[in-house]
Specification:
This protein has about 260 residues and is mainly beta. Helices cover about 10% and strands about 25% of the residues. It is built from 2 helices and 14 strands; from the N terminus they run ββββββββββββββαα.
Length: about 260
């Protein structure tokens, strides 16, 4: 797929600046950030229900600096331009259709109720008439396994989890196109990290005892205690599942083994 080398559409871009890790009061809440270059944020159309039964033509494929997936620039029959996640199999000047009348081909958006079981999909919604959240990264995709009834469908997520979604939510058929290697990037120089907003950081074990809990010692030491922040808070072993789900699981387990 040929990537567009020119400038993005000006009406669909928004200039964003780095916050430097500071909140609305100017206080640093996230360390080691700052100095990032201003970038053009592409405004994606992640809710394509408003263009139901509208035909769009693919103008070009672009690269979004804030995404691992490529994006497509579509023009609808009424002249509206929109950005969408690029999927594999589409060619320049090809046409897509959104809605129940569309065929389940790459790039078409429709409700899960109209998608055949076993189809690879992306850009899923969590709730009807909202923006897409699931499987939007380059190379990631979900799969519609089966429809339980008229209301719910079973979907296999990129993580391997199987979850029930409402059959009324919309999804895009196909797999997002991945651009570049993001797992093993090579910075080549320190200045490139500064462009990305990453400030240099010093390891705690290389500091003095007055500067960090890991500091001090004779020669090279590993800290002599569990990994902590400069203020003594543990940085490893945290619960990654949200508390709302954790509390419900604890409640169910207590009720089961009571």
């Amino acid at each position: 797929m040929r990537i567009w080398k020119g400038r993005p559409d000006k009406a669909l871009t928004l200039i964003t600046y780095s916050s430097g890790g500071r909140n609305c009061y100017g206080k640093i809440t996230c360390r080691h950030k700052g100095g990032r270059s201003a970038i053009n944020y592409r405004l994606l159309d992640t809710n394509r229900e408003q263009y139901t039964n509208h035909v769009a033509r693919l103008l070009r494929v672009e690269k979004d600096p804030r995404r691992t997936a490529a994006i497509n620039l579509f023009m609808y029959e009424n002249g509206i331009l929109t950005y969408n996640i690029a999927t594999q199999g589409l060619k320049i000047s090809s046409f897509i259709l959104n809605g129940p009348l569309a065929e389940p081909t790459s790039g078409s958006a429709m409700a899960l109720a109209n998608v055949p079981p076993g189809t690879l999909i992306c850009c899923l919604q969590f709730f009807p008439r909202t923006r897409s959240h699931v499987a939007m990264a380059g190379g990631s995709f979900a799969q519609l396994l089966r429809r339980v009834d008229d209301r719910y469908s079973l979907v296999k997520l990129p993580s391997g989890e199987r979850r029930f979604f409402s059959s009324a939510i919309w999804a895009v058929v196909g797999v997002p196109i991945s651009v570049g290697e993001f797992s093993t990037p090579i910075s080549s120089k320190a200045g490139r990290n500064r462009w990305l907003g990453i400030r240099p950081s010093v390891r705690g074990v290389a500091m003095n005892p007055v500067d960090h809990p890991h500091g001090g010692g004779q020669g090279k030491t590993s800290g002599g205690r569990p990994s902590v922040s400069p203020w003594g808070r543990l940085t490893k072993g945290r619960v990654t599942k949200p508390l709302r789900f954790q509390s419900s699981l604890v409640y169910k387990s207590r009720k089961l083994f009571r």
